Automatic annotation (TrEMBL):
Protein name: anthranilate synthase
GO BP, sorted A to Z: L-tryptophan biosynthetic process
UniProt GO molecular function: anthranilate synthase activity
Domain (Glutamine amidotransferase): residue spans on this chain: 445-623
Biological source species: Micromonospora pattaloongensis
Statement: the UniProt record of this protein carries the keyword Lyase: yes
Reaction catalysis annotation: chorismate + L-glutamine = anthranilate + pyruvate + L-glutamate + H(+)
Lineage of the organism: Bacteria, Bacillati, Actinomycetota, Actinomycetes, Micromonosporales
Amino acid sequence: MTLLQQLLTAIAAGSDPGPFALLRREGADQVEVLTGPVTTVDRLADLPLPAGAPGPRTLALVPYRQIAERGFACVDDGAPLECLAVAGQETVPLAAALALLPDAAIETTGGGFDISDDEYADMVGRVLRDEIGRGEGANFVIHRTYTARLAGGRTPLSAALTALRRLLVGERGAYWTFLVHTGARTLVGASPERHVSVEDGLTMMNPISGTFRHGPDGADRTALLRFLADPKETDELYMVLDEELKMMATVAEHGGQVIGPYLKEMSHLAHTEYLLAGRGSLDVREVLRETMFAPTVTGSPMENACRVIARHERRGRGYYAAVLALLGHDDAGRQTLDAPILIRTVELSPDGQLRVPVGATLVRHSTAAGEVAETHTKAAGVLAALGLRPPAAPRSAGTEAVRLADDPEVRAALAARNDRLARFWLEQRSPGAATRAGLAGRRVLIVDAEDTFTGMLAHQLRALGLSVTLRPWTAPGDADEFALLVAGPGPGDPRGVDDPKMAAMRRLITARLDGGGPLLAVCLGHQLLAGLLGLRLHRRSAPYQGLQREIDLFGAARRVGFYSTFTALADVDELASPYGPVRLARDAADGAVHALRGAGFAGVQFHPESVLSRDGLTVLGDLLADLLAPAPALGGVTGGHT
């Protein structure tokens, strides 16, 4: 008798067979069966990864509260970090597994969302107004949970097996379709999204965003093309792409290369997605830690997104938005990792309670009604597997529906999205190809103000030939040791007088100006520099979060990406400051200062490192060539600290 048959026989008899997992990976014609004891550990670094034969060694069920390992805020609900140590394993052909899995009716009672549509719409409005509207970030994911209880005498494990079978038959495009039973809980899902994987030294991530809802008759090509042209959906994907590039900047030695975009088609909906790939050498447990958790289920910038989530949700997330993580070794003894995001998943407790958490990504274009509808759509696949929603149009097992992703117009619409993006992140980069004369080997300190865009900035500066050190605003060290100080980006109101971060960054910038050392300020750093130079700071009525614009940058047209709610304003092109004359590149319509330059310092409101800044590397190279040149940085602009 196979492992799967043993498990199913025990469950049919009403007994608990012990911890196990069933999983089908994307495109596989087999189901993997894993069994073994479950233990609980405190930290990701404690996940067991013993040496031994090639293959999976540990399946970890990682809760959202683990984000506290990075020092980020969360509501601690005590959900444990559980590890299944793989003692038994087998693979079963998909058709054989489907023949064995039960398909009896699932009865439930008391179904509904824990937060009503109206309450959720109000929460969306508050986040748009109080968080995005006040410069706390570019996007945030706020969740709600569908709850119900099993009825009719079905055990949770028996119902879970039926739900798994229905997902295997009725869902498509899932990265993992799975059932994990630890004894304390059972999770069943069809997650569309790889969070992170490591194989053969290649680290990959998979930012997915934008949700196209199929109609009652399935996907509609005309409606899909309208969706692909929708600026809200396009910008949403760009923003999560930027955020996951920040993570890749930490775990991959040269950052991530962007591949795509693609259309991910599922039974009830479709998403747009990119793949990111980069070479790295970190322990896979460290890769997991540094990538907690995907911006597609949290927001950006990450650290402040966690604060916003805790502030508005005010309850724990359990395992929603975290990951399953399968750790092992390959044939050469190298570590491997495969970690899908825990979304589109139902959790069943031993007493028959079921929970299906879902969230919507809130951006500056969002509407309350649209985000409410998105949560219903995202829950539909799992709820259909539980008999709580109508199933998608039926299809035979093993067959694929017509793929709109293969339609020439759809492919062209997707490819056109890259025309606006920075080639630096889209193309494979040869070491030294972008090095600028006069910059090679110069030492740079980047001070991070709680936005890991600084990691991407570090990669671009290294590509230009500089030697980069990255430090947090709480411990910047001695900036005088470096040829260049970069005052980095971060969330918050630059006008705040009682904010410790703003005060610390102002002191840092002031000391650099007083000392005369070269200074580059980006986004928040730029705003603080502008304020110290005497410019008025203003909160925009419509945030510039994830916005790409072509601007006049000191006489050159440059296409760049903005992530800001605040801006400096000026009605002149040159300013007399305590540190000498300052040239301003500003918007002719409203006076918003896009950039400034003085003797030995410069600031940019946009993010040259963003994938939205098509001309970002050129902008950085030109600014730094001036700032670090032995001669005065600006012909025609003289003077220093007076």
